[in-house]
Amino acid sequence: MKTKVALLTAAVGVPALFLGPVIFPPADFGVKPTAAQLPLFILLGVGDAILLGLGVSFLVFGLPVLRQVSPDSKARAWAMYLSIGYLMVSWWPHLNMHASNGTDLGGLLRIDLLFHFPLEVAGVVLAYCAYSLFRSWRSGKLTEDAVLAAETT
């Protein structure tokens, strides 16, 4: 499984790193990064491309794992799966859209609505899921369901 995740992550992340500026051409608004800032922007780009690859790998391989973590609630497993997936894959287009947007305030508002709001929702969903998992574990229900799930697999 680790090899599959690494291969898929690289297969998505490496092209994403190079395609970002092609798909989202950087805006030319007269300000260029300084020599000290440029490596940090490159580091952000590399990190976001890797996270995109890891996010795709999570979306491909992660649901069965979350079903085992949350055997008592399919809805909670799906909510965690979608939230984690969005938190991981959204940064690559988010960063690239910011670089391409320049000083267009309408574009900035669209970026914020498309990315920031769902990121906030995903955080709330994951916090609620963690609380819900704790309550299930504390009541003993999670242990019973986990044993039943393990017996059926």
Summarize the structure.
The protein is built from 6 helices and no strands. The chain is mostly helical and 153 residues long.
What order do the helices and strands come in, and which of them pair?
Elements: H1 2-23, H2 37-69, H3 74-89, H4 91-101, H5 105-139, H6 141-152
The residue fraction in helices comes out at: over 70%
The biggest sheet amounts to: none
Count of individual helical segments:
6
Count of discrete structural domains: 1
Shape: elongated
- What series of H and E elements makes up the topology? HHHHHH
What does this structure look like?
The chain is an all-alpha fold and 153 residues long. It has one domain. Helices cover 84% and strands 0% of the residues. It contains 6 helices and no strands. It is elongated.
Looking at this protein, list some descriptive labels:
single chain; 153 residues; mainly alpha; 6 helices
